[in-house]
Amino acid sequence: MAFPLVYVSQNVRLREEVTLKQFLECGKIVGTHGVKGELRVYPMADSPDFLTGFTTLWLDGGRTPVKVLSARVQKGVAVLRLEGVDTMEAAQALRGRLLYVNRDAVDMAPGEYFVQDLLGLKVINADNGQLYGELSEVSPTGANDVYHITFADGSIKLIPAIAQVVQSVDLDEGVMRIRPLAGLFDDED
User: What percent of the chain has pLDDT over 70?
Assistant: First the structure.
């Protein structure tokens, strides 16, 4: 079944107002390390190294700041020591909680985006404005991320997150413009 063509004028704003979250999930406390209150934190970022660069992280969705006393990477997780958490029992009480980072504390290079900001973007053809669907998921693969686009009929198509395909991202407009590789969205018989 062919996807019906929907054209979007380049001058039409697809989102009325964009509100980017100030505090973003950056890790989940998955356990303790040692007996002095260190925490094992599974990163919700490209690597656990990301979590070692902050002096303050946040709990409770960004409502409770916690000072990071030390941070290192060990076996694919970040090991953090937080102010006020100095026993294994105190660390164990935080197990399962999410840590957040203030977006203002993160230096991003041009062309880098938080995954949470990309989710929900309208994905359109960079050449003719055809609306393909909405970016619904991002999968890391090692070489490059893969973007999942959910079409209006519920089908999901995958595109590589490479410069050859992704032409531009406009968070204010809520749009990702792509130029699909030949055969990427062709219907299968």
Answer: 89
The pTM (predicted TM-score) of the whole model is 0.72
Q: How far apart are CA 141 and CA 105, in angstroms?
A: 26
User: What is the C-alpha to C-alpha distance for residues 136 and 116, in angstroms, rounded to an integer?
Assistant: 10
Please give the Cα distance from 115 to 47 (Å, whole number). Answer: 14
- Was domain 1-16+114-189 assigned CATH 3.10.20.30? no
Q: Which CATH superfamily is domain 23-102 in?
A: RimM (2.40.30.60)
- Enumerate the β-bridge partners of residue 128: none
Cβ contact 34:73 at 8 Å: no
Both tokens assigned to 149: 């686009």
- Which tens digit of pLDDT belongs to each residue from 115-173? 888 999 999 999 999 999 999 999 888 788 899 999 999 999 999 999 999 999 998 89
In which element (H, E) is residue 94 found?
none
Q: How far is CA 71 from the centre of its chain?
A: 22
Q: What is the pLDDT of residue 112?
A: 82
